[in-house]
User: What shape does this take?
Amino acid sequence: MASLEDELRSALRRREPSPDFTERVLARVSAAPARRAPQPWVRWLAAIAAALLLAAGGLEYRHYRGERAKDQVLVAVRIAGSKLNKAQKKVQMLTHRSTS
Amino acid sequence: MKAAGLAIALLLLAGAAPAQQVKWNFDKLAARASDTVDVSLSGSLLRLATKFLSDDDKDEAKVKKLVGGLKGIYVKSFEFKKPGEYSAADVESFRAPLHAPDWERVVGVHSSEDGETVEVYIKNEGKGIGGLAIIASEPKQLTLVNIVGAIDLDSLSELGGHLGIPEVDVDKKK
Amino acid sequence: MTVLEMPRRAPSAASGLDFASLVRQHQAMVFSIAWHLLRDRAVAEELAQDVFLSLHQHLAELESPEHIVFWLRRVTSNRALDVARRRQRRPMVSLESSPEPVAVTPGGDPLLGTALKKLVAALPEKARAIVVLRYQEDLDPAEIARVLGIPVGTVKSQLQRALALLREKLSRVVGPASGLSPREE
Assistant: This one.
């Protein structure tokens, strides 16, 4: 019997856009108007703003990567700890049986 | 004199050589598994992860202390739709690198309840532990863990009852 | 996901091929998020094009293929949500009049699927986005929280409520013997 989740995955599976979608995107990219060269001080401001945006974007992605990596550490420790404790529990049971 | 100096340099280099990840080949199993958990953390990514573990959360703080000095954490857990999707030969291929002289099997147990076999290996490095490997095989799941670096097994064990790790029931009578 | 060699600067004509490959690789994902949130093909395509135009402008800031996917999901979801909120005041396009785009991989019960899609479309915008990211993109609650910029607790509670609502409404639409088994969350 299918679950609601399986049916949702099926109902919400990805769809393709129109066959010429890529060409239309590229056409829009090419048609984006060229900007006139701004004044030098405007260029400096733009460069600083771009550097700040880049730093902010980089920081945001670093945060995303860090959180994902942290989740992976916790998963790994949980799995390793579970298996180790299972072995330890079995050893203790066997030891207890042999001494009782 | 020069030869002696070179020999000393080589010895020092050998001592300073970083602990290596166990070379396991997962291609065959990955193709047959219905689900895979894959963790591969080392170097800067592992250090970054450690920074994101909270000092305010008790469990995360313990994990932070546990993994702080490690060089790598690798976990692969394969789930299969039915038993028999992997063979004893597959498991033996994962044991093979652990037959090296610096690896020592410290525990090997089998549970008839759930059919799971767990083997724990440690890598000896001087007077301490340089790594840990666990091979856990059950009818529909195979898990391989490799931790590179000086892992404190007692601290790992003490996480039982936290983070979803089952607690070890001490002295339980049957 | 295949690893692409990403141009570090905004693509020039010479690297136009790289950007075209990017569009082809991710167009189904971007379009589908927009489509499932808006249920209007024309608007979803327009939004998807805008997202790729923005991607072209911001490409130099993105560090890796994984970052690009994260960025695309986030920008598409947030822009679609903005559009959905604005459209709430205007009459909705009937789902019957909006042609169904072709699915990447076919499957599932078409009648049940149609009913489910309508019910998902009727969810509040944020819940709809969470359901789409969970079941179209197979993201876990922590990842959904990062894409939408909301707490993970909110994602989990909204997801639970949405599923309960969908289950209840679905049983009224297709009958109690819908054949759907309850599943542990």
Notes: The CA atoms of residues 89 and 95 of chain A lie 10 Å apart. Chain A touches chain B through 32 residues (CB under 8 Å). Chain A is about 80% helix and 0% strand. Residues 40-99 of chain A form one domain.
